[in-house]
Amino acid sequence: MRLVLPFLPAGAFVAVLGLFFLHYSTYLPTGGEVINQGDFEFPTGVETSGATPNAPRALWEGWGETAAWAPNEGYRNTGGVRLTAREDMRGHLEYVYPNPNDHEHLLLAGRIRTRAVRPGPYLHSRARLLLYFRDSAGNVHWEHPHTACALTGTKRWRKYRWVFPVPAWAATAHVCLQQAGRSGVMWVDDLSLTPVRLNPTFHWWQGMIFAVSGGVGLGYLLYLRLLHRRNGRWVALLACGIVAGALCPTEVFGKTVGWVIRLGQPDTSLATASVRHPAEEPDAARERTATEPCKVAPGTVSRGEAELKSRLTTGVKSGGHALSFAVLAFLSCLVFAGARAAAPSHDHRGRQRVRRDLLRGAGAGNRARACVTLTANVMFASTTELLQSATLSRHPLLEDWLLDLSGAALGFALFTSWRYLRRRKCAA
Questions:
Q1: DSSP secondary-structure letter at 115?
Q2: Of 276, 263, 266, which Cα lies nearest the Cα of 303?
Q3: Bridge-partner residues for 150, per DSSP?
Q4: Domain locations in the chain?
Q5: What is the pLDDT of residues 359-412, one digit of tens each?
């Protein structure tokens, strides 16, 4: 119990932080929903067939064999949209919203369910919900954020929400439902596009949260005396690096990855590929050929560079989450669970004490200290994910949190293995 008490304030801080972001709205609506009947509860007759220009169904382009209205297949057996994919055809629906520059941001939300979606050869070849923009010349700037979600496999109904800033050059906004995988089915329901603006109190709360978080971190740094322990400075430095990486804006991270790609001079065959972006793939409404090159605005990144950049960004983020928390868990267990073994042992008496502690199972073998240290890593991972809600370009994700936990578990396992091998070496 004595080991648990110091971490109770941190647990309370994580709980309060989570409850705050659960009820706080970063963006406030500035108007009604843009999409007419986004719940896809189309009436029967003319409205269902889309025979009249003002029919809700006629506002969507791409209806056909792979994109059909499903009366009883939506969320809770209501109306919805079913998109399927085969080797030669992709389900695609598109809704065009003119004059998006009247708003600062657009909030795209919808419920999606998938079944047996197999990803294609490209990173975008998945079941996706998009919002992309075209300029006055009809060009698409794919470097601008445009993906709300990209799914594979089988997923139950889940609501996805994403806020997209409206660029100054945008002439039209395009909501795209795309099943771009090799095969599988995608269902969409309760789709909405809402103009929003930033909450006026956001920056005040942002500064308050960052100040309190920094105070809590500094308090634990002094209480645990990290800077006076062996390897403690590395733990503090790595923890600060993880927080900085979690709060780093997406634009800065993307520009850094793009700079690395251009520095490495990737294969130019990727940049000249004729494969179209999913939002540019042919459909019955537009009757475009599959070999038509993607229209990219001058001065923007090429299709191949955007594809390589997306892959590297995803790989660096996933690997960085797991690797950083694996190292952090190993070092923190080494510092706290092995407090006596990590003490200075430059003299003969110190080395004898280390050997005695390892043989007895004390110090580095203290299971209670190791478990509490692992719990502290879990709370730290939760805090770093929740702090992303205090930024405009980052959002807490369950997948990232699970990657953090898997990395912490790996570091704990490595520490346990190292402790066992060292104990056997001392016993020999």
A1: E
A2: 276
A3: 128
A4: 5-24+202-427, 27-197
A5: 344 444 456 677 778 888 888 999 998 898 888 878 888 888 888 999 999 998
Residue 69 is encoded by which pair of tokens?
């209205």
Least confident of 10-24, 147-161, 164-178, 338-352: 338-352
Total-model pTM: 0.73
> What's the token pair of residue 339?
């407090």
CATH 2.60.120.260 fits 27-197, yes or no: yes
Burial class (CB in 10 A: 0-12, 13-18, 19+), 101: middle
The 10 Å CB-count burial string (b at 16+, else e) for 222-244 is eebebeebeebebbbebbeebbe
Q: What digits encode the pLDDT tens for the residues 161-192?
A: 999 999 999 999 999 999 998 899 999 999 99
Amino acid at 58: A
d(CA 142, CA 144): 5
Structural contact between residues 172 and 141, judged by C-beta atoms closer than 8 angstroms: no
Token pair 């919808």: residue: 110
